[in-house]
Amino acid sequence: MKSQRPVNLDLRTIKLPITAYTSILHRVSGVILFFGIAILLFALDASLSSEEGFAGVKACLSSPLAKFIIWGLLSALLYHLVAGARHLVMDAGLGETLEGGKLGSKIVIVVAAILIVLLGVWIW
Question: How far apart are the first and last CA of the chain?
Fold first, then answer.
């Protein structure tokens, strides 16, 4: 019995559907949020410990690197929120077909991109 399956898959050449990309990004944004919460809780603890701690956190958050990190964390939150809303809509029975899934994925990417750009304008 000769198998026609490929032995070595080159993952860079496999064309994934848009629904796969939105699903992978949804999981990645969840992981980013999981680890980002630790950073934010550390900053909250430092800011509540004393006046000097608050001043230190305030000074740290005014740097461009900290603004970029906060923008990244909030971008992950916005994408995760929009993609999660898509999952809730699909749980309600809307967009469960292949075409509906593709359209929902495109809507998620467009809405999340618009919100992330607006967030960047608001932060800077």
Answer: 63
User: CATH number for the domain including 117?
Assistant: 1.20.1300.10
**Contact indicator for 90, 104 with CB cutoff of 8 Å:** yes
Q: For residue 112, what are the CA distances in angstroms to 21, 79, 102?
A: 14, 5, 15
- Report if residue 5 sits inside a domain: no
Q: Taking the complete model, does pTM exceed 0.70, yes or no? A: yes
Q: Is 46 part of any domain? A: yes
Residue 87 annotated as binding?
Answer: no
Domain hosting 44: range is: 18-123
Model pLDDT for residues 12-65, shown as the tens digit of each residue: 788 889 999 999 999 999 999 999 999 999 999 999 999 999 999 999 999 999
Residue 11 placed within a domain: no
Q: Report helix angle 98-123 to 64-91, nearest 10.
A: 150
1 belongs to a structural domain: no
36, 76 Cβ separation under 8 angstroms: yes
Q: What pLDDT does residue 7 have?
A: 67
